[in-house]
Amino acid sequence: MESNLNKITYGLLIAVILVMIFNSYNLTGMMGAMTATGMAAANTNAVNSNAGAVTAAPAVQSSLSGPDVMPKGMPAMYGAELGVSYDDVSASDQKKADATITKIGLLDKKLSVKGADKERYIKITSQISCEYCCGVESIIFENGEAACGCNHSFAMRGLAKYLILNHGSEYTDDQILEELGKWKTLFFPAQMTKKAAVMQSQGIEFNYINLASNKYRGIEVSA
Predict the structure, then answer these.
(1) Which of 6, 26, 34, 218 sits in a 20 to 30 Å window from 154, CA-based?
(2) Rounded Cα distance, 213 and 210, in Å
(3) How far apart are CA 99 and CA 105, in angstroms?
């Protein structure tokens, strides 16, 4: 009787030990699975975080700049005659710039061209506009009358008349147009610098006719 009881006790003890071993084994497996799951989730979050960082990277701010196209010094012939210099028109001295533009612009009201001189005047000034101010096709109408009333246009028309009347044999039509282009470049430095940069990027030859006349008008918009 006692022998049977001992056998039962030993059997129960063995069973309890086996159950404990089994539970311990399962618990270890569960912990391992949880650890693996946690590491995988952490890695996934890290990848997503990095991907988000790439996607959300701030855009690089850039500004378009171009070559220094501002004319400098005193214009040949007419600079001393009129008492004007390209250097007069600068943002550092707005009062002086306005005075110079006004001085040249008054020539448009004082001078008049007729006959062959007027035909030449129309041919030259119809090729240039004040698009950054007036937006007209050119600074004159087809009949030679003023098409824009801003100071910039007055100055370009006045200078064209002065050069035709006083230096008509010394300046070609293109040279007069170039002079108008130089002053227009000074009037609109930011826009013309941007335009020069676009022209440079497209391999277009630099001269003040290409830059300031209607030949490549609006090309900078593509930038």
Answers:
(1) 218
(2) 6
(3) 10
